[in-house]
Amino acid sequence: NHENQISKIQFYNEFLLTASNFIFPLITFSYVSRVLGASGTGKVSFAISVVSYFTMVAALGVPTYGFVGSQSKRRSGKTNRTTQEILIIHFIYDGNSFIVYIMAILFVPRFQSDRTLFLVVGYQFLLDPLGVNWLYQGLEQYGYICKTFN
Q1: How far is it, in rounded angstroms, from Cα 123 to Cα 107?
Q2: Rounded alpha-carbon distances, angstroms, from residue 87 to 66, 68, 77, 98, 108
Q3: Nearest 10 degrees: CA dihedral of 34, 126, 97, 74?
Q4: Closest to 147 (Cα-Cα) out of 3, 5, 20, 1
Q5: Per-residue confidence (pLDDT) for residue 69, from 0 to 100
Q6: Which long-range contacts (CB under 8 A, 24 or more apart) does 81-89 make?
Q7: How far apart are CA 27 and CA 22, in angstroms?
Q8: What is the mean pLDDT of the chain?
Q9: Predicted confidence (pLDDT) per residue in 36-90, tens digit
Q10: Rounded Cα gap, residues 65 and 137, in angstroms
Q11: Got the DSSP string for the chain?
Q12: pLDDT tens, 100-116?
């Protein structure tokens, strides 16, 4: 009975995740494209790419350190502490990068014209450190990562 319940949960998890990853963009892209138009879609894509560069700089080395740290600490049983330390480091780097990002919005003329858009897209700074694929790689739980992206 317990195994049946686990397989049901896994099926629903995989089905819902896969279906939502396929259907949600299919529905929203056409609506967003129609509402924003070509120039609006381009502005949003530009803002997302700028935020991606800032978050990429904030994450430099963190996934590698996390992978190596979680792999070595797994053997010694100190995975929780290592994970907490890496998350704290990532939040600090992300916070510093966010400060530079806000300064860019305030002082770069190209960013000032779409200030609200850049602030809204900046939510990615909050979500980026929560991506802990490096932890699952270090723990060698590749099945979880594959389920996340499929």
Answers
A1: 20
A2: 9, 14, 18, 16, 30
A3: -130
A4: 20
A5: 62
A6: 83/132, 83/135, 86/62, 86/134, 86/135, 87/129, 87/132, 89/62, 89/65
A7: 9
A8: 77
A9: 888 888 999 899 999 999 988 888 877 667 666 655 655 556 666 777 777 788 8
A10: 11
A11: -HHHHHHHHHHHHHHHHHHHHHHHHHHHHHHHHHHHHHHHHHHHHHHHHHHHHHHHHHTTTHHHHHHHHHHHHHHHT-HHHHHHHHHHHHHHHHHHHHHHHHHHHHH-HHHHTTHHHHHHHTTHHHHGGG--HHHHHHTT-HHHHHHHH-
A12: 999 999 999 989 889 99
Contacts of 63 (CB under 8 A, 6+ apart): 133, 134
How far apart CA 72 and CA 66 sit, in angstroms, is: 10
Residue 5 tokens read as 């319940």
Q: Look at the block and give the residue holding tokens 């480091």.
A: 89
CA–CA separation, 43 and 32 (whole Å):
12
